[in-house]
Amino acid sequence: MSMQGLLCAPPCHAHFPAGEYAFLRLFDAHGTYALAAVAERTVCAELHLEVVRPGPRAMRGMVADLELFRQRMAKKGIMRIVGLRQISDLNAASDAQAQDRWFRFTRAFGFTEQSLVQTAFLDTDARPKRHISGPENRDQVSQCRHTRE
User: Fold this and answer.
1) Tens digits of per-residue pLDDT, 75-114?
2) For the chain, which domains are there?
3) N or C: at which end does the chain have fewer Cβ atoms within 10 angstroms?
4) Nearest CA-CA partner of 105 in 114, 94, 116, 118
């Protein structure tokens, strides 16, 4: 299991604001098993995890990765990691089995105090702010190259 920083958001996290989140690829010898978006807040870290290769091997990797992440956050004085899940399908969001899977999945990592939050988004007419300057940076983002963490 390894973590690799990404220079740009993967498609599953493309809606997160640039600069506010760090994007990670979690992988092992068999390839990528998850993608993560992380934002450090004052006393907590916000964690969004997209599992792309489920299974026991990936689960073991995620358990080890989360423990390493927990230790890093503790060293920074961050007291809590908040795991968040997004379901775009309203039918799946109200599905009791899907909710039960969420609770079992998070408990397997040691999360407690699980709850369910539903959100809705309303777009404005604002144009996205560009955080990128210079042709060399635009090229890096368009190619979405990886960096080592």
Assistant:
1) 898 888 988 876 656 555 567 777 777 788 888 888 888 7
2) 2-114+125-148 (3.40.630)
3) C
4) 114
